[in-house]
Amino acid sequence: MTTYVEPLDPNDVVARPHRYFRRKYVWEWPIRVFHWVNAVCLTVLFLTGLYIAAPLLAPAGEPYGNFVMAWVRKIHFTTAFIFLVNFLWRIYWFWMGNNYARSGFPFIWRRQWWKDLWRQTTDYLKLQKGHVHLGHNALGGLVYTVFVIALGWAQIFTGLALYSESNPGGFWDKLVGWVIPLLGGSMATRTWHHFFAWGFVVFAILHVYIVFYDGLQYKNGLISAMISGEKFYQEGDIDHDTWLS
Protein backbone atom coordinates (compact mmCIF):
# COMPACT_ATOMS: atom_id res chain seq x y z
CA MET A 1 0.00 0.00 0.00
CA THR A 2 1.41 3.35 -1.05
CA THR A 3 0.83 6.44 1.08
CA TYR A 4 0.82 9.79 -0.65
CA VAL A 5 1.80 12.91 1.28
CA GLU A 6 0.18 16.15 0.25
CA PRO A 7 2.89 18.63 -0.80
CA LEU A 8 3.27 21.72 1.38
CA ASP A 9 1.41 24.68 -0.04
CA PRO A 10 2.81 28.02 1.21
CA ASN A 11 -0.52 29.70 0.47
CA ASP A 12 -2.33 27.17 2.64
CA VAL A 13 0.10 27.84 5.49
CA VAL A 14 -0.91 31.49 5.37
CA ALA A 15 -4.62 30.78 4.94
CA ARG A 16 -4.93 28.00 7.54
CA PRO A 17 -1.94 28.26 9.89
CA HIS A 18 -3.66 26.25 12.62
CA ARG A 19 -3.26 23.07 10.54
CA TYR A 20 0.52 23.12 10.81
CA PHE A 21 2.85 22.35 13.68
CA ARG A 22 5.73 24.52 14.73
CA ARG A 23 8.60 23.52 16.94
CA LYS A 24 10.18 25.22 19.92
CA TYR A 25 13.32 24.43 21.90
CA VAL A 26 12.09 23.68 25.42
CA TRP A 27 14.34 21.23 27.29
CA GLU A 28 17.98 22.29 27.45
CA TRP A 29 20.66 19.60 27.42
CA PRO A 30 21.25 19.65 31.23
CA ILE A 31 17.57 18.79 31.77
CA ARG A 32 17.71 15.96 29.26
CA VAL A 33 20.93 14.56 30.73
CA PHE A 34 19.42 14.70 34.23
CA HIS A 35 16.32 12.86 33.04
CA TRP A 36 18.15 9.89 31.54
CA VAL A 37 20.83 9.65 34.23
CA ASN A 38 18.06 9.74 36.83
CA ALA A 39 16.13 7.00 35.03
CA VAL A 40 19.19 4.73 34.88
CA CYS A 41 20.17 5.43 38.50
CA LEU A 42 16.69 4.73 39.86
CA THR A 43 16.48 1.47 37.92
CA VAL A 44 19.88 0.26 39.15
CA LEU A 45 19.20 1.41 42.72
CA PHE A 46 15.84 -0.32 42.85
CA LEU A 47 17.09 -3.63 41.46
CA THR A 48 20.22 -3.73 43.62
CA GLY A 49 18.16 -2.61 46.61
CA LEU A 50 15.80 -5.55 46.12
CA TYR A 51 18.78 -7.90 46.10
CA ILE A 52 20.30 -6.38 49.22
CA ALA A 53 16.96 -6.74 51.02
CA ALA A 54 16.40 -10.33 49.85
CA PRO A 55 19.48 -11.99 48.28
CA LEU A 56 18.62 -14.40 45.49
CA LEU A 57 22.08 -15.89 44.96
CA ALA A 58 23.96 -17.97 47.51
CA PRO A 59 27.07 -19.20 45.69
CA ALA A 60 28.99 -22.09 47.19
CA GLY A 61 32.48 -21.59 48.51
CA GLU A 62 34.30 -19.24 50.82
CA PRO A 63 33.15 -15.59 51.05
CA TYR A 64 36.50 -14.26 49.81
CA GLY A 65 35.92 -16.00 46.48
CA ASN A 66 32.18 -15.39 46.11
CA PHE A 67 31.32 -11.94 47.41
CA VAL A 68 28.24 -11.27 45.27
CA MET A 69 26.58 -9.21 47.99
CA ALA A 70 29.68 -7.03 48.31
CA TRP A 71 29.60 -6.26 44.58
CA VAL A 72 25.87 -5.53 44.65
CA ARG A 73 26.32 -3.19 47.61
CA LYS A 74 29.23 -1.47 45.86
CA ILE A 75 27.13 -0.93 42.73
CA HIS A 76 24.25 0.32 44.88
CA PHE A 77 26.38 2.82 46.81
CA THR A 78 28.27 4.04 43.73
CA THR A 79 25.01 4.60 41.85
CA ALA A 80 23.57 6.33 44.90
CA PHE A 81 26.35 8.94 44.86
CA ILE A 82 25.84 9.47 41.11
CA PHE A 83 22.14 9.96 41.85
CA LEU A 84 23.02 12.50 44.56
CA VAL A 85 25.28 14.56 42.26
CA ASN A 86 22.69 14.41 39.48
CA PHE A 87 19.97 15.46 41.92
CA LEU A 88 21.95 18.48 43.12
CA TRP A 89 22.69 19.38 39.50
CA ARG A 90 18.95 19.49 38.74
CA ILE A 91 18.35 21.81 41.67
CA TYR A 92 21.13 24.09 40.42
CA TRP A 93 19.65 24.13 36.92
CA PHE A 94 16.23 25.00 38.34
CA TRP A 95 17.69 28.47 38.96
CA MET A 96 20.16 28.67 36.09
CA GLY A 97 18.11 27.12 33.28
CA ASN A 98 15.51 28.63 30.99
CA ASN A 99 11.91 29.30 31.96
CA TYR A 100 10.86 25.72 31.29
CA ALA A 101 13.36 24.36 33.81
CA ARG A 102 11.04 25.85 36.46
CA SER A 103 7.72 25.11 34.76
CA GLY A 104 5.12 23.28 36.80
CA PHE A 105 6.83 23.93 40.13
CA PRO A 106 4.10 24.35 42.78
CA PHE A 107 4.10 28.10 43.23
CA ILE A 108 1.23 27.76 45.70
CA TRP A 109 1.36 31.47 46.55
CA ARG A 110 0.38 32.37 42.98
CA ARG A 111 -3.25 32.35 41.96
CA GLN A 112 -2.38 31.44 38.37
CA TRP A 113 -0.77 28.19 39.49
CA TRP A 114 -3.95 27.08 41.27
CA LYS A 115 -6.03 27.94 38.20
CA ASP A 116 -3.70 25.94 36.01
CA LEU A 117 -3.79 22.99 38.43
CA TRP A 118 -7.60 22.92 38.40
CA ARG A 119 -7.76 23.30 34.63
CA GLN A 120 -5.30 20.48 33.97
CA THR A 121 -6.96 18.15 36.49
CA THR A 122 -10.39 18.62 34.91
CA ASP A 123 -8.92 18.13 31.42
CA TYR A 124 -7.48 14.76 32.45
CA LEU A 125 -10.69 13.68 34.18
CA LYS A 126 -12.70 14.54 31.07
CA LEU A 127 -10.12 12.83 28.81
CA GLN A 128 -10.10 15.86 26.57
CA LYS A 129 -7.44 18.06 25.06
CA GLY A 130 -7.00 21.21 27.08
CA HIS A 131 -4.56 24.08 27.05
CA VAL A 132 -1.09 23.57 25.65
CA HIS A 133 1.89 23.46 28.01
CA LEU A 134 5.28 23.49 26.38
CA GLY A 135 6.92 22.77 29.72
CA HIS A 136 5.38 20.95 32.70
CA ASN A 137 1.77 21.75 33.53
CA ALA A 138 0.87 22.50 37.15
CA LEU A 139 -0.45 18.99 37.87
CA GLY A 140 2.57 17.31 36.33
CA GLY A 141 4.87 19.66 38.20
CA LEU A 142 3.13 18.92 41.50
CA VAL A 143 3.44 15.16 40.99
CA TYR A 144 7.08 15.61 39.93
CA THR A 145 7.83 17.66 43.05
CA VAL A 146 6.24 15.13 45.40
CA PHE A 147 7.47 11.91 43.78
CA VAL A 148 10.89 13.00 42.52
CA ILE A 149 12.09 15.94 44.61
CA ALA A 150 10.53 15.08 47.99
CA LEU A 151 11.08 11.33 47.63
CA GLY A 152 14.56 12.02 46.29
CA TRP A 153 15.52 13.91 49.43
CA ALA A 154 13.94 11.21 51.60
CA GLN A 155 15.93 8.49 49.84
CA ILE A 156 19.15 10.49 50.02
CA PHE A 157 18.90 11.11 53.77
CA THR A 158 17.74 7.61 54.73
CA GLY A 159 20.23 6.00 52.34
CA LEU A 160 23.21 8.00 53.57
CA ALA A 161 22.16 7.37 57.17
CA LEU A 162 22.18 3.62 56.55
CA TYR A 163 25.50 3.94 54.72
CA SER A 164 26.99 5.81 57.69
CA GLU A 165 26.46 2.77 59.93
CA SER A 166 29.51 1.14 58.32
CA ASN A 167 31.73 3.83 59.87
CA PRO A 168 30.41 5.01 63.27
CA GLY A 169 31.69 8.46 64.11
CA GLY A 170 32.81 9.06 60.54
CA PHE A 171 31.91 11.89 58.17
CA TRP A 172 28.53 10.58 57.04
CA ASP A 173 27.60 9.51 60.55
CA LYS A 174 28.22 13.04 61.81
CA LEU A 175 26.35 14.55 58.87
CA VAL A 176 23.22 12.38 58.63
CA GLY A 177 23.51 9.89 61.49
CA TRP A 178 20.75 11.76 63.33
CA VAL A 179 18.21 10.40 60.83
CA ILE A 180 18.33 6.90 62.33
CA PRO A 181 17.24 7.80 65.90
CA LEU A 182 14.77 10.30 64.44
CA LEU A 183 12.99 7.52 62.52
CA GLY A 184 13.11 5.06 65.40
CA GLY A 185 16.26 3.06 64.78
CA SER A 186 18.15 1.30 62.03
CA MET A 187 15.42 -1.19 61.13
CA ALA A 188 12.75 1.51 60.92
CA THR A 189 15.03 3.66 58.74
CA ARG A 190 15.58 0.70 56.41
CA THR A 191 11.82 0.13 56.21
CA TRP A 192 11.21 3.77 55.28
CA HIS A 193 13.99 3.57 52.68
CA HIS A 194 12.25 0.59 51.05
CA PHE A 195 8.86 2.30 51.26
CA PHE A 196 10.16 5.42 49.52
CA ALA A 197 11.72 3.24 46.81
CA TRP A 198 8.33 1.80 45.92
CA GLY A 199 7.06 5.36 45.66
CA PHE A 200 9.41 5.80 42.70
CA VAL A 201 7.87 2.72 41.08
CA VAL A 202 4.41 4.26 41.39
CA PHE A 203 5.73 7.48 39.88
CA ALA A 204 7.39 5.64 36.98
CA ILE A 205 4.12 3.92 36.06
CA LEU A 206 2.17 7.19 36.18
CA HIS A 207 4.93 9.00 34.31
CA VAL A 208 5.06 6.56 31.38
CA TYR A 209 1.26 6.50 31.09
CA ILE A 210 0.91 10.29 31.07
CA VAL A 211 3.78 10.71 28.60
CA PHE A 212 2.08 8.45 26.06
CA TYR A 213 -1.36 9.93 26.79
CA ASP A 214 -0.18 13.51 26.34
CA GLY A 215 1.90 12.62 23.31
CA LEU A 216 -1.13 11.13 21.55
CA GLN A 217 -3.56 13.79 22.77
CA TYR A 218 -1.52 16.88 21.98
CA LYS A 219 0.79 15.46 19.29
CA ASN A 220 3.51 17.65 20.78
CA GLY A 221 6.50 15.32 20.51
CA LEU A 222 6.60 14.80 24.25
CA ILE A 223 8.65 11.61 24.04
CA SER A 224 11.20 12.76 21.46
CA ALA A 225 11.56 16.06 23.33
CA MET A 226 13.72 14.34 25.96
CA ILE A 227 16.17 13.52 23.18
CA SER A 228 16.02 16.57 20.92
CA GLY A 229 14.78 19.13 23.45
CA GLU A 230 12.14 20.34 20.98
CA LYS A 231 8.37 20.23 21.38
CA PHE A 232 5.66 21.04 18.86
CA TYR A 233 2.68 23.37 18.93
CA GLN A 234 0.15 24.81 16.51
CA GLU A 235 -0.81 28.35 15.56
CA GLY A 236 -3.32 29.62 18.09
CA ASP A 237 -2.01 27.47 20.92
CA ILE A 238 -1.04 29.38 24.05
CA ASP A 239 2.13 28.74 25.97
CA HIS A 240 0.67 28.58 29.47
CA ASP A 241 4.07 28.50 31.13
CA THR A 242 5.02 32.08 30.33
CA TRP A 243 3.48 33.33 33.58
CA LEU A 244 6.51 31.89 35.38
CA SER A 245 8.74 34.64 34.01
- The CATH class turns out to be Mainly Alpha
The class by helix and strand makeup works out as mainly alpha
Q: What quaternary form is this?
A: single chain
CATH H level, superfamily name: Transmembrane di-heme cytochromes, Chain C
Per DSSP, the total helix count is 9
- Rg calculated over all Cα atoms: 23 Å
**Mean pLDDT over all positions:** 84
Biggest sheet strand line-up: 1-2
Give start-end ranges of low-pLDDT stretches: 1-8
Tally the beta strands: 2
- The shape, in one word, is elongated
Strand percentage = under 5%
How many strands, what sense, and barrel or not for the largest sheet? 2 strands, antiparallel
CATH topology: Fumarate Reductase Cytochrome B subunit
The CATH architecture name reads Up-down Bundle
